[in-house]
Amino acid sequence: MILDAHIPGGSISEKWTRHKFELKLVNPTNKRKFKVIVVGTGLAGASAAASLGELGYNVLAFCYQDSPRRAHSIAAQGGINAAKNYTNDGDSVYRLFYDTVKGGDFRAR
């Protein structure tokens, strides 16, 4: 048995362009025949699953937390912001830290 990675020929700088050019397109009526598996339901995984579902694919989203709402990027509400401390904003490093820990149900490390 010979393993074949299907790496396109040519120089490294043009491999991705060549690969995209040689891909077969999916007919819009055949999209429902494909199952797309998305592992992880954080911001990127949930966004990918929602976008692919809107395009008509059958999407299976798997999470390994208690529930999709417990994904790290969704639970750490304050962690995706920065403590800029603008005038009259009431922002601080302490509040950013507190919001991040509280968003993770005090399970953050």
Write up what this structure looks like:
The chain is of the alpha+beta class and 109 residues long. The chain folds into two domains: 31-74, no CATH class; 76-109, no CATH class. Helices cover 36% and strands 9% of the residues. It has helices spanning 12-22, 43-55, 72-75, 93-103; strands at 35-39, 58-62. A two-stranded parallel sheet has the order 1-2. Strand 1 (35-39), helix 2 and strand 2 form a beta-alpha-beta unit. The protein starts with 11 loop residues before the first helix and ends in a 6-residue tail after the last helix.
The largest pleated sheet is described as: 2 strands, parallel
Total number of distinct structural domains:
2
- The assigned structural class equals alpha+beta
Distance between the termini: 46 Å
Q: Which stretches are poorly predicted, pLDDT < 50 over at least 5 residues? A: none
Shape: elongated
The strands making up the biggest β-sheet line up spatially as 1-2
Rg (C-alpha, Å): 21 Å
Helical content stands at: 25-40%
Counted by DSSP, the helix tally is 4
Number of strands: 2
